[in-house]
Design goal:
Aspartate Aminotransferase, domain 2, PyrdxlP-dep_Trfase, 4-stranded antiparallel sheet, aminotransferase, 7-stranded mixed sheet, Aspartate Aminotransferase, domain 1, about 15% strand, PyrdxlP-dep_Trfase_small, alpha/beta, about 375 residues
Length: about 375
């Protein structure tokens, strides 16, 4: 008997498989196709011959933990304790899974804001707990009154994703103020803040939960070196949480993973001495602007993109099809793969919107948009 009877193959896998079968340009899955920075690959090449291939401490490579603490301080002005408040994870998804598995119990409720990343619900269900899916407004802002209505003594956690996948929205100061007022009314609710795209923001920097003093004692923050440094296949992320929560999360982590890839941790630790995270947003803003410019003459309507490396577009002027069927036809007839936004909703809400990933080299973006402008 399945523990996840209503969960099937992810839409990312489906669309990428179709893209391969039809030789389509894959703008569906969120990974870069351009080369990794040579400074990082040079570090890896050097380390391959050094003694860095055995287990590292369960919490993470100590110099990397120290540099994460410095990074958080430099980025957000928050002082954290490297030994007790940071955990290196096998990717952000493992960090999310471990956090939920640790802190959520049978019959608890976890509020998930739709459209939402598909890895949030599964661990909640595996805890025999109840996901409570609440749709964002159609402009992808949170409706805090609606969110408050579903809060109760059973609510254990609220998950926020900022910058937001798939929409590219970032939360405002008033959003955080509303969240803090809500959590004051429910002192037992924990916050899981998924901030894997924290360094991929554009005109406005995102407001991190790291900067919200009222939230720090009850918040687990998820980050991703894979996203920040264009090495998604390395699967290296990290969690920051107060010591009392982190102590429990580490208990579960040690039996899921024990320790994370050693050479990758050491390489990232060394790389942090050479790179500025300020470079990351500039790189992706150039790609966002180029992609939007190339689509200017298309029939797609481009939604605002404040962060992440995803661009949401409306195809309402092109077709009345549901978004899943449109995306399949886009692959088969036009040779471009995208992701239907309805699949990020519990109820399959269809606003005739699809998501493109613009974390691609310029040649790929140019050929993809040429095809899209021909529709």
């Amino acid at each position: 008997m399945s523990k996840l009877p209503n969960i099937s193959t992810s839409i990312f896998t489906v669309m990428s498989k179709m893209a391969t079968e039809h030789n389509a340009i894959n703008l569906s899955q969120g990974f870069p196709n351009f080369p990794v920075n040579e400074r990082l690959t040079d570090i890896v090449a050097k380390l391959a011959k050094e003694n860095v291939h055995q287990y590292l401490p369960m919490s993470g490579y100590p110099p990397l933990l120290s540099k994460i603490a410095t990074l958080v301080d430099d980025s957000y002005g928050r002082i954290i304790q490297a030994e007790t408040e940071i955990l290196v994870t096998a990717g952000a998804t493992q960090g999310i899974f471990t956090t939920i598995l640790t802190l959520v119990k049978t019959n608890d409720e976890v509020i998930i804001l739709d459209p939402s990343y598909d890895c949030y619900e599964a661990p909640v269900l595996l805890c025999n707990a109840n996901p409570v899916r609440v749709a964002l407004n159609d402009d992808y802002t949170p409706n805090w009154a609606t969110i408050e209505k579903v809060c109760s003594s059973k609510t254990k956690m609220i998950i926020i994703n900022n910058p937001h996948n798939p929409t590219g929205k970032i939360l405002t100061k008033s959003d955080f103020e509303a969240l803090e007022i809500l959590l004051e009314k429910y002192p037992d609710i924990l916050l899981l803040s998924d901030e894997v795209y924290e360094y991929i923001t554009f005109e406005e920097k995102h407001i991190s939960a790291h900067t919200r003093e009222k939230l720090l004692h009850r918040c687990v923050i998820v980050s991703s070196f894979g996203k920040s440094f264009h090495v998604t296949g390395w699967k290296v992320g990290y969690l920051v949480a107060p010591e009392n929560l982190m102590k429990e999360i580490k208990k579960v982590h040690q039996f899921l993973v024990f320790s994370v890839n050693s050479i990758c941790q050491v390489a990232i630790s060394d790389y942090l001495d050479l790179v500025s995270v300020d470079e990351i947003g500039k790189l992706y803003q150039e790609k966002r602007d180029y992609f939007r410019q190339l689509l200017k003459e298309s029939r797609f309507e481009l939604m605002p993109c404040e962060g992440t490396y995803f661009q949401v577009a409306s195809y309402a002027a092109i077709s009345n099809e549901n978004d899943v069927d449109f995306c399949k036809r886009l692959i088969i007839e036009h040779g471009v793969a995208a992701i239907p936004i309805s699949t990020f909703y519990a109820d399959g809400k269809d606003l005739k919107l699809i998501r493109f990933c613009f974390a691609k080299d310029n040649t790929t973006l140019e050929e993809a948009t040429k095809r899209l402008c021909a529709i």
